[in-house]
Recover the amino acids of this structure.
């Protein structure tokens, strides 16, 4: 009976895709998890830094225009003048 129950546990899968009754090498599990986190970080870095020179220049131009527009709407105090 106990053997049949353990076999039925092997068929149910965890969220990781590993059967609950199976042995898991923790070193491999940790490495797989670190690789997944590293891949997520790489994806973020590609989005942040993987832009062309023209895209960076366009973003800098937009930021400068927004800063200039904000400066134009600034009130000057009477004390400084």
């Amino acid at each position: 009976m106990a053997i049949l129950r353990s076999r039925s546990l092997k068929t149910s899968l965890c969220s990781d895709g590993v059967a609950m009754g199976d042995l898991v090498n923790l070193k491999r599990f940790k490495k797989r998890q670190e690789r997944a986190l590293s891949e997520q970080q790489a994806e973020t870095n590609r989005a942040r830094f993987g832009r062309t020179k023209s895209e960076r220049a366009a973003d800098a131009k937009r930021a400068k225009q927004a800063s200039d527009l904000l400066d134009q709407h600034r009130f000057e105090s009477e004390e400084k003048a």
Summary: Residues 39 and 45 are 10 Å apart (CA to CA). Residues 6-10 have pLDDT under 50 and may be disordered. Residues 12-72 form one domain.
